[in-house]
Amino acid sequence: MAEVQVTTKVGSAIAWPIPQALEGVKSRTRPIFAVSSASLAVTGEAVSQISGLKITLESRIAAVGNSGRAVVELLLGERQLVRGSPSRHDSLRVARLGPLPTFTHSGYDSGTMATLIADALEQQPQVVILEERPDAGEPWQTALLDILDGPQVHSFNGAVITSVQSSESKVGCAALALCHERWLGADGWLWQERVAAESLEVWEDVLGEWSLFKDDPRLDKFLAEVAETASHFFQEDTVAKSLEKGWKLSLLIERDAEEGAEFCGYMCHMPPSEGKTTMHIARLAVPAKRHQGGFGQRLVLWILRKAARMPQSECAWISLSSLDSAMEFYERFGFIDMTCDDHADPNHFQTVMELQNRSVVAEAE
Description:
Layout: E1 2-4, E2 33-35, E3 38-40, E4 48-50, E5 53-55, E6 60-64, H1 65-75, E7 81-83, E8 87-88, E9 94-97, H2 110-121, E10 127-131, H3 138-149, H4 151-155, E11 159-164, H5 170-178, E12 181-186, E13 189-194, E14 200-203, H6 219-234, H7 238-245, E15 248-256, E16 260-270, E17 278-285, H8 295-308, E18 317-323, H9 327-331, E19 336-337, E20 350-356
Parallel strand pairs: 1-9, 4-13, 6-11, 6-12, 9-10, 10-11, 17-18
Antiparallel strand pairs: 2-5, 2-8, 3-4, 3-7, 12-13, 14-15, 15-16, 16-17, 18-20, 19-20
């Protein structure tokens, strides 16, 4: 790992080399660094549960806030997982572009800065980290904006990770304009998602008596799409079944400037009831045309974060019955097989799984 210090208008003037080839990596979409189900301590926060992170040579990722910075430190070897272990290519090289510790107190000419950048990139890294440091002052902020707007970062054939304090800052906005994914955390969870996921929203309990959406003119259209999706995957009428069994039916909707809103998936769940401390996920489905978009992950994280905001005495476990083909997906969140079933049995198709709730709420005195 090389570290470089940069000043204004120098970063975008230096050519970035072609990354050193990695043995066995034939595809630019193959992970060169990954973390599956694991736990990571985040500065100033409780231990966060990771639901899946990965870097490929095509990655452009904004690492947001303390959670994102913790992942950057994990990548640099400055922080270790509390539970689990990362998968990392043996020959992975990382260059870190950040300000000099004394940057705010003394100046450096462009020739010196050019040499520092060239030295950092000399080893042909496959990953370059751009680090926002608010304490470094305005000169570094300007330099970082110059790099983010320059042609080198856009044409670089390796991964670029930009560590930013907030998505709302000037540098944060520039990073999100460059990046198509981000690392962020909340409610004891840390995850990777598409930047476009900020346009997603959950319409909760749309069939409930006090639903905020029952008079929305779009609801009938979305419920018809729920019925179509349910018929395809479960051969049932999930809307009718939700009413019959008292499931809370929630929809994942993507706001679209041109189309208005698009249906991206649904979840049915049963919250803990009196005398029971288990949140049960009864159904989860994403329309076939929306697969591989991260929508299933978004729905699961939504319910897990909802559970995390409940005290352990109220919600101790989250349970579900997974199709065998979806078990690997749920294992990424830490769900475990609670059965002793023979999965080799050709007639076996469903598995009961559970996850202990990682509550972030203190118990009442």
